[in-house]
Amino acid sequence: MVAPVPTDIHGETHATTEAAGHGEAASGGLPQFDTTVWAGQIVYLLVLFFVLYLLIAKVFAPRIRRVMDERETSISSAVATARLVQAEAAEQAAAAKAEVDKARADARAASVAAKARITDETARRSAEEEASVNARISEAEAAIAKTRDAAMVNVSSIGSDTVRAIVERLTGVAPTQAEADSAVAAVATNARTAGAA
Question: Which pLDDT band, with edges at 50, 70 and 90, does 183 fall under?
Fold first, then answer.
């Protein structure tokens, strides 16, 4: 008796499934090693490779290259601008330093000139004041000498009168004016000689 062929719900037989299962077992179980499908896989691989190559070569690589070129250009222009700004800043710093040095030199020169002018003015005023003081001292000395001479004349006459009064009181006899004057002159000469010694 012949065994019935199993059917599924739809009434299809399982004979093809069993044959496929026996084929897998015969080839080793992995479809990648089935040499009957290698030609199709190689064609599929070549098609995908060329499509990917064309996409990378014609679309992605130019875009990446353009972005990298733009970036390199932007960086180089930024570096050039930074160097230019740095050079301008260095020039401005040098100019500012030169101006500061010039201002310092001018200030020093003005200070030296002002100091010299003040010194000259002070020396001139000092000389003027010293001349004025010397003139006043000379005038005062002349006035003192005049007063002293006038006083000495009066002292001589007062001395003569005093000598006459004392001698008259002591002796009762009044000396003459000439005798009294000569006695006073002799005493004054002795006093000057003693003071000089």
Answer: confident
| Alpha-carbon span 172 to 23, nearest angstrom | 194
Answer positive or negative: Cα dihedral of 73, 76, 80, 85.
positive
| Single pTM value for the model | 0.36
Residue 3's alpha-carbon distances to 6, 143, in angstroms, are 9, 177
CA dist 155 and 87 (Å) reads: 98
**What would the DSSP string read from start to end of 72-97?**
HHHHHHHHHHHHHHHHHHHHHHHHHH
Which tokens belong to 1? 């008796």
**pLDDT per residue over 87-134, tens digit each?**
999 999 999 999 999 999 999 999 999 999 999 999 999 999 999 999
Question: Element (H or E) spanning 127, and its range?
Answer: helix 61-171
Task: Quote the CA–CA distance of 112 and 118 in Å, as a whole number.
Answer: 10
Q: Give dist(CA 190, CA 182) in Å, integer.
A: 12
Longest dimension (CA), the chain: 217
